[in-house]
Amino acid sequence: ESGLALCDLAGSERCSRTHNTGERLKEAGNINSSLLTLGKCINAMRLNQHSKFQHHVPFRESKLTHFLQFFFCGAGRVSMVVNINQSASCFDETLNVLKFSALAQKVNTHTNTPENSPSSICGAVEREAGRPGRRPAQVGHGAVDDDRRRRPAQKHVGEGQEELAGCLGDDPGGRVGG
């Protein structure tokens, strides 16, 4: 599945300066609220990249972030274009936009394969089997027989490849992980 989303997030607008009223004022408030939630999501995703404890990412707090969740979770590419105003009267807003974009730039939106997924297991087993000079694992005082160790791993890899091929719709004989 693929998708393309183009979002013009406008800007954090100060109502006192724009003199908006009625529907425009309400729209500016909604934009500011969505931008605040987007900032919370980006901050939580950034924290989750470097923490064992996974912080809640509040995607459902706004329509914008709920919609963009698909992209932020690695299902697509994310690009951000930032427009700033060089006027001295817009210094505070420009500084905030630059801080926001610097934080957003540090977020990795590519999904990490879970350690127990079939493709990850297959890759780990293939890497381990392909290491030059690999010695059998030591158990107690003796070496474990390679064949005895290899058979369950090969069976597990085969099952994982079949499961992965079924999920991806690939032919069962296809090579996984490379």
UniProtKB/TrEMBL annotation:
The keyword Transmembrane helix does not apply. One of its GO terms (molecular function) is microtubule binding. It comes from the Eukaryota. GO terms for biological process: microtubule-based movement; mitotic spindle assembly; spindle elongation. The lineage of its organism: Eukaryota, Metazoa, Chordata, Craniata, Vertebrata. It comes from Seriola lalandi dorsalis. Keywords: ATP-binding, Coiled coil, Cytoplasm, Cytoskeleton, Motor protein, Nucleotide-binding, Phosphoprotein. Residues 1-107 form the Kinesin motor domain. PANTHER family: KINESIN FAMILY MEMBER 20B, KINESIN-LIKE PROTEIN KIF11. Residues 128-178 are annotated as: Disordered. This is Kinesin motor domain-containing protein. GO terms for cellular component: mitotic spindle; nucleus; spindle microtubule.
